[in-house]
Structures are given as C-alpha cells and as structure tokens.
C-alpha cells in the first residue's frame, strides 16, 4: 500500500493543478496578449513536477511484481493524465515564459501602447468636439499604478503578485471595453460629420460687441423670458440682408442664452444644437438630410453615452438616409428623462433657404415641435413666407421683426468703423455737425438692411483712408444706390469694358450652377475658347493640389477684376473636388442676376456667340471626372465623389435639353455624355458589372421594389435622368437597344427614382414631376411593352409596377395634384398601348394589406385616382379592346370593379 502522505500529496497536487492550472493558463494567456508573459507559468510547471514525483513514488514503493490497488491505479491514471496534459501544455507554456527583464520591457511597451491609443482617441475627440467623461483617464491611471506595483512586487510571494496581476487583468479588460465603446461612439459621430457642417456658421459675420444687445432686454423683447420659461417656437423675421443670420449666431452662442437655458432646464442639462440653411451653398447646407444630420451630430457629440441606446449597430460606410435620421432624432427626443435628463432648444436659421418645398420642411420640423415634448423648443428665423406663416401662426410667439430694432445698432456700427479711424476723427474735429449728420443718414437710408450698411460703410472708409473731405463722403452716400439690386447693378456697370464678356460668362455660370464651383473650374473657360472639345480630348489624369494652387493663385485676381466683390473666393478645400469654392457675396446677388439681370448678361456676349452656360458646365464636370484620383470601389467616399459629379453633369444636361427649342439634340452635349460613360467605365474597370452599379438602389417601400439584377446601363440612367433627346438619338442609331435584360427601360421611365448624393432643384423651383411624359411616349413608340414581365419583381408587368409605385406614394401623402395629373396622362398612354387590366399585382398579405380587392388593377386605380377617374380609365381600356376584337362587350372587366 502506498504511503498515505504520498497519496494525499498526489491528490492535493492534482487538485491544485486543475484549479490553479486553469486559472494560471487563462491569466498567462490574457497577460501574454497584453504584456508578453506571466511568472505563474513557472508555478504551473512546478506543480506538474510534483505530480510526476508523487506518481513515481507510488509506483516505486510497490513490491516488484505486485499490482497496484484499485484506488492507487486510479490515482496513477489521473497523475498520468496530468503529466500528459503538462507535456501538451509545455510548448504553450514555453511561449508564455519570459525573463524578468523582458517582462519589465513588455510592460513598458504595453503602457506606451495604452498611452498611444488614448492619444489617438483624444485627438479624434478634439477633432469632432466630443464631450466624454473621465472614465478612460481614470482607468489609465489605475493601470499605470498597478504596473508600477507589479514591478515592485517582483520579489514578493506568488500569491501577492498574482492578486496584483488579477487586478491588472481586470483593469485591462475594463480599459479594452471602454476603448471599444469610445471607438464605436467616435466612428458613429464621425459618420454624422460632413465637411460643410460649420461652413455657413463660419461665413456669418460675428455681431459687433455693441450691437444686438437689445435682444436680451426684457423691456424690448420677450426673448430672455422665452429662453427661461417659454416653450414652442420663438420666431424671428425680416427681409433679405436684414441681419437675421448674424442675430441668430449672436443669440445661439451668447453666454446669457446658456445661463437662461440652464435655468429653464434645471435640474436637467440644456442642449442647444443649431443649423443655418444656405441656399447658395452645398447640398448638405440646404437639405433635410443636412439639417437632421447636423442637429443629431451636435447632440451626440455632447452626449455620446446615448449612442448604444438609440443606435446600437450601424456600419461605418453606410450613407445616412432621411428616414433613418428622422427615426433616430425621434428616439433621442423620446428618451425618458430618468435616462437622459436633457432639454433641447434648437436654433434653426433661414427656413426660406431650404432647397425643397416648404411643405416638406414643415413635416421635418414637426419632429422637433411635437406637442408631447415639454423638453423641446425652437428658435427660428426666416423671411416672410406664406406657407410657413400660415402653418405656424398659432404655434409661435409674436414674430420679432428685426428691422424694428436695428436702426440704433446700425448707427453704432458705422460709428465704430469710422470713429476708430484717425483720419475720420480729424474730420470730426473740424466738421462735427456734418459728420454726425452723415452717421444718422446712413442708418435712416438703410431701411433695416444690414448688408446695405456694411457695403456703404466699406466705401466710406475707403474714401476716408484717401483723405477725402466730408463733402465727398456725403456725395458718396447720396449717390450710393438705395437698394441692394441697384447696388449690384452699379458694381456690374463699373466692370471695365474689356472684361465684360468674361464677366457675363462667370455670372451666367454661377447662376446656373447646382452648387458652388471650385475656382479651378472657371479657368476651364479659357480652354473652351481654344477648343470646345477640350474635355472630350483630355486625358484621365489626376490633378494635384500644387497644380491647382498655381492656377487658382492667378485666377483669384481675375475673378475680382471681372466680378467685383459679388463673387467671393473661399480658402480651403471644396467639399467635393479641388480647392477654393467660389460663392456669392449674398443670396440676394444670385436672385438679382437670375430674376432681373439675366438678359442683360446675355447681351454682354459678342454677337453670334454660341456660349451656352449649361453645356459649358457639362464640359467642366466631364473634365473634373477625368481629373479624379483613381476610384476606390471599396471606399464609399470615393464612389460618392464620382457620383456627385455624375449627377451634377446629368442635371446640367437635362436643363440644356429642356431649354433648347430645337427638337434635335445638341451634338456637343451627346458627345460629352458618351465620353462620360467611357470615362466612368475606365474608373470602374475592375467592376464585373457596368459602372452605374456603383450607385445604391432605392430602398424598398412596401410593394415598390427596385431590382437591377446586374443589368443596369448608361442608357437606363439617361432614361431616369429624363434625357429625352439623348435617348432618342441612341434608339434611332440602334433600335435594338429598346430590349434590355433585367429591368426594362420603360420601368426606369415610369419609376425614375434613383439614389443621388446631391439633390436636384427640379421640384422645389419649378414643381416638376419626376416622370417625363415625352420619355414614356418615346419608349412606347419604339416598341416598349407595358405588359413586359419583370422576372426580378416576381413576374409583375411594367404596368403593374407603375401602379404599385403610384399607390405607395399616394399612401405616404407624396402625391401632389400636379403629380397625380401626370399619373393619369401616363396611365392613358399605357392603356392605349395595350396595358393589361387583369395584370397580377400581389397575392399575399406579407406587406400588411388585408384588403385584397385593392391589389388589383381596378382596385389600385380607384385607390389612387378615385372612383370616377378610375371608371373612366377602365372604360378607355374597354373601348380599346372592343376596337381590336369586334366591339364585343367585356363585362368581365366591369365585374372586376366590385371584386
């Protein structure tokens, strides 16, 4: 029988091995991942050696030739398994063993890695303006202390050092969890950021310290009281150039606003996000997406802790869609006060500068001014607008008309600009009454328009610096145009005659542009003069910043000589391409040029000139496409950049076609479009499908689905873009193009929705509908079949898909009267072309439609157009069938009516 002490020792060692071994190996692996190794590995090997010794002792103590007892045999088997396991673990343990000096070095390296990670997170935090708590800093400090203690404890007992290592492991796990959370939050916030997010704010002049203080005077306005205790909407109104944006900037950043909102929100915290619409700016400065994305960005960068709660999972590369942003904002505003003790005051400037229909803007603002929210209010500014005034007249404070308060401010502003000038003070010393009269006269003549004041003051300061006397200053003021439009005309008339042609070209280009162009684009007009086909013949060659800067430096002076101060060259990068965006001095400049001076600009062009600004813009976009860096197909930003230029070119091409009275296409424009197709095919040469597949498909909406099946084409995109003349040219040259695999061309014409990274002013400026009747007629004339089945959409016909799309839009309230009228005309065209009144629509209720009678052709017609109009369309189909089949009576059609 084996010595009891030996068996007890073996049993204890096995238990210790199992317990300590599992913990130590896990710890060693964890610490090895973080630091390089752990000394507990030596302890594990020591225990394994004890097991071997006890096991060998049992066997040696047995007399020769005698078998082990059953219990002894089981113990030896267990010991053998431990030894075998030790042999299997030894290679792993060897990889975990390091020298003491290596341990110390590795700990230093890990501490450095932690510091580097924190520095990177800190930089990202500063770049995005994220307000984190101090948890990560606290964890870092704790880790550093434990590392120092572990190094000092090198000679301590293993148990004490193990305890310290366990604490270190826990801190490292906490650090990793917090770091991962911070990284997730930062990526989320970065996805909301866009280059133009602060551009409008930065360009609004900061109010002079001595002006706008009246806003907080309770004897003059209700603004301070509203901040402290009011709710709903505080409304600021005024005409163009009256200083609304400057006042809104002043109000939103003033310390008194923060103090008043703090009193209102207590015990919660106040949050005051702002957005400044700018109609002449870039897409994100004038759209719903820009508004919502900016407001959410400002909220979550101040309160990043709510991100996992309101949007736990989101891929970084995904583009924010309007419905997603609306849903996210609703979630944020609906958080219980116990979880998110915050009250919101939104500052939104320039509602009249929104690029879409004002009715759409009202729907978006309804998210913010929900009557159930007692913790949300809005401060808004706008020019007078019929729709907005009517919508909000009962849900706002009495509008504050800015012109009623600015006269004294204007006088103060002029005094601050002139009386700080030494030469003007010299004039005051000899002509005080005349100088005082001059200051009063400026404020009187301004009629509440700050822009006018700043312009005339600029001219007066210019004259004072050249030692002009008071009489000259009076003459400048008296001759200065009394309104902005007259001032703009005055500036244009002052352009030197030899610059007038280029001036006209520049202004005609900027009036038509979809968004501000980079300065380099204007230099391309010189190339166009020498060779109208310059963009077509240009090589695909990326433009470097150094080359662009060299060109731009020359063109800054040329721009000023030809346009005065009416066009401003900004510093920095263009949000889409190249450098130095060129923008109008003020929105009113573009309005003046487009509405009052367009014909005058055209008259400045030489007789017989074939300059067409829209065609020139198409050439510019083509050249810029060829100047892009190689497109990265895995990079959403790279693809978006290309698609922005593509969509801008397609917009200009559509406008050029629409305004050209000739029924035949402009061949120069056809050539540009063809070359764009070839250029983008080169950019996407690594793609298996056509380059148009880089564009995302529209999202499914109920029954309305958009599937390409890998067969999209440039001709299909031209159909979506309503380029009727271009499509006619292509079908004439090859009639077989009407037959396209996958989604039929007629379907693109009837459902022209496409995802674009830039919105087009088709609807907001002219209330145009998306469907072009001429395009539908053209395709039908070339043999398009409304009854063609689309296997990508479960075999539904083109006609059925059109009705489903109309139905979904009508259900969402997106069908204005003008659009419904177009639907009726298109339905007539399709019916007279043989559209099947028995077409299959749907046969299940997976989309939540329980009334199956609706999902028939007749049911959809009635739902979309009403019973009378639907009955007329059905009778039109009956008449057509009767003509083709001997005037037989088709009661089956009428029976469908009541099914």
Structural account:
With 899 residues, the chain is mainly alpha-helical. Among the domains are: 4-98; 102-192; 199-404, Rossmann fold (3-Layer(aba) Sandwich); 407-480, no CATH class. Helix content is 60%, strand content 4%. It is built from 39 helices and 10 strands. The strands form 3 sheets. Strands 1, 2, 3, 4, 5 and 6 form a 6-stranded parallel β-sheet that branches. The protein has a two-stranded antiparallel ribbon with strand order 7-8. Helix 1 (4-34) runs parallel beside helix 6, helix 4 (100-128) runs antiparallel to helix 5 (135-152) and helix 17 packs parallel to helix 19. The longest helix is centred in the first third of the chain and has 35 residues, at 158-192.
Q: How are the SSEs placed, and which strands pair?
A:
Blueprint: H1 4-34, H2 40-61, H3 70-96, H4 100-128, H5 135-152, H6 158-192, H7 199-203, H8 223-229, E1 232-237, H9 244-253, H10 255-265, E2 269-271, E3 274-276, H11 288-302, H12 307-310, H13 322-333, E4 342-349, H14 358-368, E5 376-382, H15 386-392, E6 400-401, H16 407-418, H17 422-446, H18 450-464, H19 470-479, H20 484-493, H21 500-512, H22 519-530, H23 534-537, H24 545-563, E7 567-569, E8 582-584, H25 587-595, H26 598-603, H27 613-626, H28 636-659, H29 667-683, H30 714-720, H31 724-733, H32 745-750, H33 762-766, H34 773-781, E9 789-790, E10 796-797, H35 798-811, H36 817-832, H37 857-865, H38 867-884, H39 891-897
Parallel strand pairs: 1-5, 1-6, 2-4, 3-4, 4-5
Antiparallel strand pairs: 7-8, 9-10
